[in-house]
Write a structure and sequence with these properties.
alpha+beta, 6-stranded mixed beta sheet, about 20% helix
Length: about 325
């Protein structure tokens, strides 16, 4: 009789879920469907997103221990194997496929296409019919992302980098696409200019954590040079502002008498990083009020993550950009 009661309980609970729940067909390549249910609609959505994340990226940590124990005077060997798993991914542009409220619970199904952010942006551009444009920012048009967009669209379009809600976006007209870290990195590139040249004093412009370094700068005209740094996360800081420079003179900036000498550092300990250094030439002194002063502390304020402002600022000015990799010491 007890067995009969348990069977009825299991059967009745199986009918509590909507008929579509967990059974939607996925016909798209690189697409995932996640399911979630809860008495709270927000939690059900979060569970569905977590379901998708676990399908995309699962990390399993394993640890093994071997120890000796004594029980009642007997020595024995005890081995333990422990495993744990966690999932991590950033989801943008997901779609609510199905939602239903039944028996006091919310049931949702969410769809997500797992393709690079630039591919999603190109899809939106093609669907909207954005036209070819000769108008492009002087810095942006020479970046790897501009070259990749041209290859994918077979035309040049006007686009910008945008910081919004603590995320980086690529924008074209009304199209806004969040960027993943790989596509955001395509905005960082060395750009040469015959009127102003910049390089570090290190071989192949590669630095190691803790290196003290300086720049070698040469200009075709007499005037002033300022050097700004863009961190891997898009934070902009000025290293030096309005340093006098003579025509065709190779200057070490900052020189030995300067109070602060740049020191290479890593954002995450042990993980290689990169920075963009931009040398700007002007005949008169310039103002850089929107950008932070670099110091020995890592700048973390959101207002200084303004790489997009720097890109706009550079348009029409004389500058060179140098991408520098910093490696951890072995």
């Amino acid at each position: 009789m007890r067995w009969f009661f348990i069977s009825l309980f299991v059967i009745s609970n199986s009918f509590a879920n909507p008929s579509w729940y967990g059974k939607l067909k996925n016909t798209e390549v690189n697409s995932y469907i996640g399911y979630g249910s809860s008495i709270d609609s927000a939690i059900s959505k979060r569970e569905a997103l977590n379901d998708i994340v676990s399908q995309i990226s699962v990390n399993i940590d394993t640890s093994f221990s071997d120890r000796m124990t004594e029980i009642n005077g007997n020595i024995s060997n005890v081995s333990e194997l422990k495993t744990s798993q966690n999932s991590q991914a950033v989801l943008n542009d997901y779609k609510l496929l199905k939602s239903e409220y039944s028996d006091g619970k919310y049931f949702v199904a969410i769809g997500y296409e797992n393709i690079p952010s630039l591919d999603k942006f190109v899809k939106k551009v093609k669907a909207s019919g954005v036209k070819k444009s000769a108008k492009q920012n002087s810095y942006l048009k020479n970046t790897p992302i501009a070259k990749k967009l041209h290859n994918m669209l077979q035309k040049d379009i006007e686009f910008n980098l945008l910081r919004k809600d603590k995320k980086w976006y690529i924008k074209s007209h009304s199209i806004l696409q969040p960027l993943d870290s790989k596509d955001f990195a395509r905005f960082f590139t060395t750009q040469n200019n015959p009127h102003i040249k910049i390089q570090t004093n290190k071989k192949r412009d590669i630095l190691y954590d803790g290196d003290r370094f300086f720049f070698k700068v040469q200009t075709k005209q007499k005037g002033f040079v300022s050097i700004l740094s863009v961190y891997e996360d898009g934070t902009v800081a000025t290293l030096v502002r309005n340093i006098p420079i003579d025509k065709n003179s190779l200057e070490n900036i900052p020189d030995a008498d300067f109070e602060t000498i740049p020191e290479a550092g890593l954002i995450i300990k042990g993980v290689e990083t990169y920075d963009l250094y931009v040398a700007v030439f002007s005949k008169k002194k310039m103002r850089f009020d929107n950008f932070a002063y670099a110091d020995e502390k890592l700048i973390s304020e959101e207002k200084y993550k303004n790489f997009d402002e720097l890109i706009s600022f550079l348009d029409g000015k004389s500058y060179s950009a140098l991408k520098v990799v910093t490696k951890p010491r072995k």
